[in-house]
Structure formats: C-alpha cells, structure tokens
Amino acid sequence: MSFSTVSDAAVLNTAPSTSRPRVHAYIDIAVVIAVLVGTNLIAHFTTVWASIATVPISALVLLAMSKRRGLGWAELGLSPKHLKSGSKYALIAVGLVLTVVAVGALLPLTRPFFMADRYATISGAIIASMIIIPLQTVIPEELAFRGVLHGTLNRVSGFRGVAAAGSLTFGLWHIASSMGLTSGNEGLSGFLGNGVVGQIAGILGAVLATAAAGLVFTWLRHRSGSLLAPIALHWSLNGAGALAAAFVWHATMN
After folding, report:
1. pLDDT score, position 32
2. C-alpha distance from residue 85 to each of 61, 91, 148 (Å)
3. Is the pLDDT of residue 176 over 80?
4. Are 190 and 214 in contact (CB under 8 A)?
5. Are the CB atoms for 174 and 210 separated by under 8 Å?
6. Percent of the chain as helix, strand, coil, to the nearest 5
C-alpha cells in the first residue's frame, strides 16, 4: 500500500460525518415539537393552575435544553448585539398595530369584533394586558417558537423552511385555545354562529390567522436578529386588543 493510500484512508476514517450533526438537529426538532404538543395538552385540558404555569415553565425548559444542545444566544434571538435593530422594528410594529386597533375599535363596522366578555372591565383588561398576557403568553411563546424552534429549524433549513414550519406549528398551537372563540365574542358569533359549524370555522380561522401572524413574527425575528421585535408585535396584538375590547365593552354598555 502506498503512502498516499494510507493517508487517504486515515483522512476518511478520521473526518467527521456531515450527516451525523444533521440527524441530531432533526432529533432536536422532534423533541422541541413533542414538548410543545405536551405543553399545549397539559395547559388546556388539565387544571387551572396547570394552564397558568405550564407554558412559562416549558419555555424555560426548552431554553435550557437548547443551550445544552449548543445553540448560541444569537441563534435564539437573545444576543445583546441585536438589541438596537430589534428595538427599531419593535417600535414600528407597535405603532402600526396600535393605529389599526384604534381605528378598528372606533369604526361601527368592526367594533363588534372587539366585544369579548372576558375583558368586560377596564381594570381586568389592564391586568391582562400588562401582566398576564406578557408573562403567561407572549414572552414564553416567543421564547419557544421564535427562539428555540426557530434556532433549531435554522440548523437544517433556510429562512423559507423555518418560516413555513414555524408558522404552521404556531397556528396548530392555537387549536385548543380557540375552541370557545365564537361563544365568547359577539362579533364572531354573529358572523359564524354558535353551533358546531361556527365553532369549527372559528378554529380554522384562528389557526390560519395565527399561522399568518407567526409568519410575520418569524420575518421580524429573521430581519432584526432579535426576539424583541416579535415580542413587541405579539404583545401589541394581544395586549392592545384586550384594552380595546374593554374600551368597546365599557362604551357600549354605558
């Protein structure tokens, strides 16, 4: 055997396999999705306390798992070097949403869609908007989806694949939470009805709407490099919506 043959054999035997890290990345994706599915089921089909604590705890667990698997802060959208660009996009997103929500709440045609009975009091809407929604929903979901899932998917796919898979998963995440959507919203129940057909239509609409929102969140995360931008947009959609619902309810009832 020649020296060159021995050298080639040694290189082949010692060179790292490119498929092995890719397989591990797919396993990581499967684990993240499994944790999200389990979290969703526990949060919506067990106890009240579980519904409060499960999503934030799971987000922290996923974050710890992803760091242990080698994801960097930049891959998770948590690098300090992207705070400036994240802040810029966050301000623009919040400004746009607040404008649209204000117009929607004032127009007679769209005002009924803000009539959600869970925000019947202004004090309750403020607590929900400033405390419950950010801590229980927005920040944990963005950590899980635009942080951990985004970073994990990005190791095996480009932006289009990450956006498609992440947005679809985010839309499906909202199936359980939208099961009673039409019954608690005057505008939706009037438009879709309160029966089974209306409930199914409400669920499908919620999945499509949240998948579309997830696509925008993912673009903001990709564009700014920071979780700050999608967190701000996510909060403004939910938080400003809650405040607008309380305003509309209060103005209509009085």
Report:
1. 97
2. 27, 10, 20
3. yes
4. no
5. yes
6. 80, 0, 20
Nearest residue to 37 via CA among 230, 207, 175? 175
* Tokens coding 101: 């929500």
Pull the structure tokens for residue 112. 């009924």
d(CA 100, CA 112): 15
Average pLDDT of the residues in 63-84 = 95
> In this structure, is the dihedral angle defined by the CA atoms of residues 133, 229, 146 and 99, taken in order, positive or negative?
positive
Is residue 7 helix, strand or coil? helix
Q: Considering the entire predicted model, what is its pTM?
A: 0.82
CA geometry: angle 125, 187, 208, nearest 5 deg: 90
Taking CA atoms, 171 is separated from 3, 5, 72, 175, in Å, by: 59, 55, 26, 7
Looking at every residue in the chain, the average pLDDT score rounds to 85
Query: Could you give the CA distance from residue 245 to residue 240 in angstroms, rounded to a whole number?
Result: 8
